[in-house]
Amino acid sequence: MEKNIYFDHAATTPVRSEVLEAMMPFFSDKFGNASSVYGYGRESKKFVEDSRDKVAKALGAQSKEIFFTGSGTEADNWAIKGIAYGNRNKGNHIITSSIEHHAVFHTCNYLEKEGFEVTYLPVDKYGLVDPEQVRQAIKPETILITIMYANNEIGTIQPIGEIGKIAKEKGVIFHTDAVQAVGAIDIDVEQLNVDLLSLSAHKFYGPKGVGALYIRRGTKITPFMHGGAQERGKRASTENVPGIVGLGKAIEIATTNIAVTTQHIKALRDRTIDEVLKNIPYTRLNGHREKRLPGNINFSFEFIEGESLLLMLDMKGIAASSGSACTSGSLDPSHVLLAIGLPHEIAHGSLRITIGAENTQEEIDYLISILPSIVEKLREMSPLYEGVKKIN
């Protein structure tokens, strides 16, 4: 029987049946523009606001602090550019990390060309940012700290609460890209002292093309898109009502069942890590062993090339990744793996397995059973591995 196993939930997730069911009426019967004043529009508006309430509840925020966007990337761009331009009279310095998603990394690169100064903090071998280095990097001109909640490639969860406390003490606005974290771990923006938080529906079994940005009340930020008065004048564009309804339903389900789902996924994750490290030599786990997302596994296998590994896994019916989905077309090694100290040749041999709620023990058993032989077959093609075998 042909296998068809999906292990790339960090790239995207399937839409839950309950989410799709909630969305469907808004493509047909309930098609009204949520900004219109008549009945069709008022009905759509009601469901948009219901979804806003659900997102706010999931984050420990107020509904008026939630703004819908077209994606997590847009939310990141808006947070960083909006704060930079809105607070330019106070300073021009931004602090971020060396392992951010490209939605943050490239936005900061862009702002450097616009005259802003950006500090890219290093990480340790596990991909962790040191909060004390954040404190030391703050200057009188610092207007924004943007550190991701959890890394999309290696799964490491950052000490967001500690960084948020420092930012609050110093009076610096704090943004976190929580695209990978929302729906996977509990989040409370008040406890974390986060001023802005980005999320994306398709990472927690919602639709693609819709995200949200939490903006703490009183935060000075410029609009990202100009036009109509949607999203209280801060984000113009006709509301994507089906997408917003789907986001609301998806985040409600994800956060309601989070404890049970997390326990299931962690068990699969830990068994995979233990078995692979035990059975495949010259293998390392990237990221922190405990402080990592429930479903994230990132290995580096010496003496192989990651793309070949992915193709061979695909031939066996397994969909996985060698890093971020946004960089899969690039031949350059992952900037995240280089930042945690891996040499180029080992960074090229990475495999990211990201487990979802629907994955089973039988699927993990299958992965564990075929991976050693695939890795060995690829290593047999490497002259470097041949030299190691002769030494041993």
How is this structure best described in words?
The model has no long low-confidence stretch (mean pLDDT 95). α2 runs parallel beside α8. With 392 residues, the chain is an alpha/beta fold. The chain contains 14 helices and twelve strands. The longest helix is centred in the last third of the chain and has 22 residues, at 258-279. The protein has a seven-stranded mixed sheet with strand order 2-8-7-6-5-3-4, sandwiched between helices. 41% of the residues lie in helices and 13% in strands.
Summarize the structure.
This protein has 392 residues and is of the alpha/beta class. Helix content is 41%, strand content 13%.
- N to C succession of SSEs: EHHEHEHEHEHEHEEHHEEHEHHEHH
Structural class based on helices, strands and sheet pairing = alpha/beta
Using DSSP, what is the number of strands?
12
Strand arrangement across the biggest beta sheet: 2-8-7-6-5-3-4
Percent range for β-strand residues: 5-15%
Low-confidence stretches: none
Range of helix content: 40-55%
- Give the overall average pLDDT: 95
Number of helices: 14
Shape: globular
Tell me about the largest β-sheet.
7 strands, mixed
Distance between the termini: 39 Å
* Rg (CA only): 22 Å
